[in-house]
Amino acid sequence: MLVESIMTPDVLSVSPDATVQEALEITKKHRIRHLPVLLGGKLTGLISDRDLRDAAHAPETRVEQWMVRDVITCHPLDFVEDAAATIYRNRVGCLPVVSKGQVVGIVSERDILNNLVEMMGVNSPTTRVEVEVPDKPGMLAEIADLLRARRLNASTVMVFPSTTEGYKTLVFRVGTMDPRRFIHDIQNAGYSVVQHPSALDDGEV
């Protein structure tokens, strides 16, 4: 998925000459946390609601006195996971999205989190099944064959390194609230399933 599919395209901004009070009113009125600072249409800074609160004792001072000047940006065609990594590594709350020198959007921590929830299939009625398998080719297909045999659909499949050397962990979000037969098939095939304690009683994981 690309940044352009999750960014906010209509970005509010301020000029460096705007006062702190003016910028603060924009953030409050539109309930936003970050304002790109533009000069002649070009990105020259970024100011957050936290910056503005810190500057609230001097409401008539100019935004350029408080803004961050070295702004980290991304491109609309960047992958969402790359934008997420940039936000995480640099400990910033958002990234202005810049294309051909123009700010065309903004992507925030919240946008990234919402996308992550959707990607993981958590916002739909599914069940998580976690399987530990040897770290060798063909394992995903083997477990998927068991899924197909039960006529179950997987909304999400993820692969993680296992804490056990020589193994990896496959995580499925399966379109059923009772995955017990699928889990039984996996165990019969000789693989270990990590189950939530509730699954032992009522079938939900």
Automatic annotation (TrEMBL):
It holds the Pfam family CBS. Keywords: CBS domain. Residues 7-62, 67-126 form the CBS domain. PANTHER family: CBS DOMAIN-CONTAINING PROTEIN, CBS DOMAIN-CONTAINING PROTEIN CBSX3, MITOCHONDRIAL. This is CBS domain-containing protein. It comes from Tumebacillus amylolyticus.
